[in-house]
Structure to design on (180 residues):
């Protein structure tokens, strides 16, 4: 009896996986290219060399005009990565790969940085300003054995419910949120 069930289970599992794959792939579709880029790429399909060159010249001109008018923005992978890192700690909706990649695959989950300044409020919670001007505020009541100091290295990683855990030079973790 068990042998008969296993004969059917494997093909059914395979069919279920195949049926789900197109739906998952649809959710991960690449963002649409700007019209200016699509029109430029369309020039490659023109067979006549003179017409193809004229098409390229025309579309590159249009692309340059759109760039100059700030209707289209170009970036490279490294710049996009720096932008994502600079926004670490802020909550944004899914941006459809606006920073050069898949939102989930390219999401930054942790950073290492250096503290530039430290202040403490009346309740004993820290406000930390990082070397990149990011401001982080402590949201838990954890007391640190040593007060953080400028120049110390800090590791910040994603926690739950929009908060982040931070350890200063490998010490005790505190919970933070990005303020600005």
């Amino acid at each position: 009896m068990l042998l008969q069930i296993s004969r059917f289970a494997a093909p059914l599992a395979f069919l279920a996986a195949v049926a789900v794959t197109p739906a998952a792939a649809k959710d991960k579709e690449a963002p649409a290219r700007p019209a200016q880029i699509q029109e430029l790429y369309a020039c490659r399909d023109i067979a006549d060399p003179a017409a193809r060159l004229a098409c390229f010249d025309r579309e590159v001109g249009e692309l340059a005009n759109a760039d100059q008018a700030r209707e289209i923005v170009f970036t490279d992978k490294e710049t996009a990565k720096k932008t994502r890192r600079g926004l670490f700690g802020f909550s944004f909706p899914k941006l459809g790969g606006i920073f050069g990649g898949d939102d989930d695959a390219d999401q930054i989950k942790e950073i290492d940085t250096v503290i530039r300044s430290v202040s403490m409020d009346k309740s004993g919670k820290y406000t930390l300003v990082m070397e990149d001007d990011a401001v982080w505020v402590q949201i838990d009541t954890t007391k640190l054995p040593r007060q953080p100091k400028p120049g110390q290295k800090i590791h910040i990683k994603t926690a739950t419910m929009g908060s982040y855990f931070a350890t200063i030079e490998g010490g005790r973790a505190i919970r933070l949120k990005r303020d600005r």
About this structure: The chain has a mean pLDDT of 76.
